[in-house]
Specification:
single chain; alpha+beta; 3-stranded mixed sheet; 204 residues; 2 domains; 9 helices
């Protein structure tokens, strides 16, 4: 069998992986499914796979989904270390009406070189994000509602969007006033005031 021929089981393996990631996959994941570099390159040149970032690809025929570029950036940054955060997390959580102008990711400080990725705003953290800080939705890892709200407020998201996000998160029982109060500790007075305003709005 020629290296450029595609066994069904090899493709099924890749499809199973990509289907949990909105049609995207990494070169490492392709390799785990049995694709050599030559085979991956062949199907990229033929158009069957679309290269979207260094080491990150998309199945051409996979149905498009809203904000799928967020998942692509997350995979390119490293799904085991990067987390979708700030305004991007708020949008995926359907909190507020914010429409991010770029993909927001949070990564460990030692990986800050990833800030070179196009259309991506990379935030760094010295303290690793724990399970208490993150949730998994539709196969992707993002910050919790409380963490997303506080991070976005600190970054400079419009005040009315923060207040709306707090109210919606509480109304939909995605977080509690107590968790938000805990999450905002150590942040600026401006951020604390915005979160408190949202909590008050939820109690009206």
């Amino acid at each position: 069998m020629h290296d450029t021929e595609l066994p069904i089981d090899r493709f099924e393996c890749l499809f199973d992986t990509a289907s949990t990631q909105w049609g995207y996959f990494t070169s490492a994941q392709a390799r785990d499914c049995g694709f050599s570099s030559a085979l991956l390159s062949f199907h990229t040149r033929s158009g069957r796979f679309i290269r979207v970032h260094h080491g990150t690809y998309r199945l051409r025929d996979y149905p498009s989904m809203p904000r799928e570029e967020v998942v692509a950036a997350w995979l390119a940054a490293g799904k085991d270390t990067a987390v979708i955060s700030h305004e991007s997390a708020l949008e995926l959580l359907d909190l507020s009406d914010v429409v991010p102008s770029a993909v927001h990711l949070t990564i460990p400080r030692e990986k800050r070189y990833l800030s070179r990725m196009p259309d991506t705003i990379v935030h760094t953290t010295v303290e690793p994000l724990t399970r208490r800080d993150t949730v998994v939705r539709e196969g992707i890892r993002l910050t919790t509602p409380a963490r997303s709200i506080v991070d976005a407020a600190e970054w400079g998201t419009a005040p009315e969007q923060i207040v709306m996000a707090v109210r919606q998160a509480i109304d939909r029982r995605m977080t509690t006033p107590e968790r938000l109060t805990e999450a905002v500790k150590g942040h600026s007075h401006r951020v604390r005031d915005l979160v408190e305003a949202g909590i008050e709005a939820a109690n009206e």
